[in-house]
Amino acid sequence: MENCRELLQANASNSLAHYRLAEFYLRDKNFLSSANEFRQALNGNLQPKWVEVWVHVNLGKIFDRTGQRERALNEYRLALRTKDNTRGALDEAEKYSKEPYREN
Asked: How many Å is the maximal CA-CA distance in the chain?
């Protein structure tokens, strides 16, 4: 987490650092901070390219977990529009478009 913060101090548009920070917050179930960092990742340099699709998938999961199904569906649609199936991102977006994400 500290490495991400240091990277962001040097370059606030580092999408990957925002993405990794969002993952830390997500693991702690801090959904608001996680969603905010994912959004910052979208506003950054979008490098590597797969960040965009996975941000949308993860935002969809957050919205599903917090009972905001319509917002989740919108994020899954945005993920599908990227046409980037890095590490099965589109497969997940398609799956959760059909049934809400549920934490294991």
From this structure: 41
